[in-house]
Amino acid sequence: MKFDLNEEQVDIRDMVRHFTEQEIAPHAAAWDEDYYFPREIYTKMGELGLMGMTTPEAYGGNLLSRLTGALVYEELAKGDMATAVGLSVHNMITGSLARYCDDEQRQRWVSRLATGKLLGAFSLSEAGAGSDAASLQCQAKRQTDRYILNGTKMWVTNGGEADLYLVMARTQAGRNAGGVSCFVVEKGTPGFSFGKSERKMGLHSSPTRELLFQDCSIPASNRIGDEGQGFKIAMASLDSGRINIGAIAIGVAQAAFEVARDYAGTRQQFGHPISTFQAIQFLLADMMMKIEAARLLVYEAAYKLDEGQDAIMYAAMAKCFATDAAMEITTNAVQVLGGAGYVRDYPVERYMRDVKVAQIFEGTNQIQRIVIARAISSNRG
Ligand code: CAA
Questions:
Q1: pLDDT band at residue 380, thresholds of 50, 70 and 90?
Q2: pTM higher than the cut 0.85
Q3: 362 belongs to the catalytic site
Q4: In ligand 1, which atom is closest to the CA atom of 135?
Q5: Which ligand 1 atom minimizes the distance to the CA of 178?
Q6: Residue 137 buriedness (CB in 10 A; 0-12 / 13-18 / 19+)
Q7: Mean pLDDT, all residues of the chain
Q8: What are the pocket residues of ligand 1 if the criterion is a CB atom closer than 6 Å to any ligand atom?
């Protein structure tokens, strides 16, 4: 593996860095304060080709390698983790649709998603089915050429704002993975509405919403893949999503590190900048070491997915290590700034609030460890 960036990767990274510095970072604190979802930024990201990063050109996208994608997410997350997460979820489902749809379905949805005309969301979890995702109970009953959906989904990123939802629902009674199928449900479909908007610790500018289905009738042609294939589609989607979350965590950690480093260089106590004290130097050294280690794990997982290798364990390791590291790094960045870090004059408290959820969503870090342990015991690790 060789991770020297080629010319195209440097250009894309620099383009996204410039965009983030100009269009995102200056507004992120206000968006957080106001719980504002910046849909206009998604339109601009569409113009830059970022909404179709996982979609081949033949289907209207602008396919990038997962490794290049990791660079994009890291840069965006330096400015605003919420925006990077919204984009990641959108690209996760767009890529899965490009992969699993038939030609007619691709015509209907994929190019409009890949160009940013439509925004996508992913819906697996329910109130009673979080880590045990296969036990989900939202029903999809076949009636001739239609499915009737009934039930409630939870924790849906982009919920309410997205135009199109990739929904996992049960087509066979029980609690097993083989009874789950995957559907596209469009906003505005009768019987489909939105429930509670979550009031979260962080990531305020990324909406998280309940989905309510009450006798919601959709054409059978909205089913993606075969009946019973939904859980596998969801898990495979999450392999790429988890690598993105790792990259996003690195971006937040890098931003926190830079604030802490700069503050330590100027803040004077006991007649010296606090960066001259070993206690602070060691905090900064640990931050840098863990950012670099996390970056290499994310790049390795992305590389394996790009090469078509079994990346399940590597995606889990990248997500778990990078997000645990980012939680520690953002917490220590607040510590370096002391009282100044705990108030909203500096962004580090937002970074810390935002990044906590990365240890929870797209599979908790306890679930990632289960995935790694299973790979070890089946000799894939
Ligand atoms: N790719 C393809 N197939 C996979 C897979 C993968 N990564 N992982 C599992 N499968 C397959 C298995 O091979 C198995 O297939 P067979 O029956 O043919 O053997 C089938 O799926 C069932 O797998 P398991 O037996 O391993 O299923 P399980 O019930 O034991 O669950 C789990 C495994 C890892 C715990 C899984 O439930 C899981 O990942 N849970 C966490 C859920 C999660 O990540 N939720 C995230 C919500 S989305 C979100 O947060 C997005 C957001 O908004 C930001």
A1: confident
A2: yes
A3: yes
A4: 29
A5: 17
A6: middle
A7: 97
A8: 85, 89, 122, 124-125, 131, 133-134, 155, 157, 177, 231-232, 235-236, 238-239, 312, 361-363, 367, 370-371
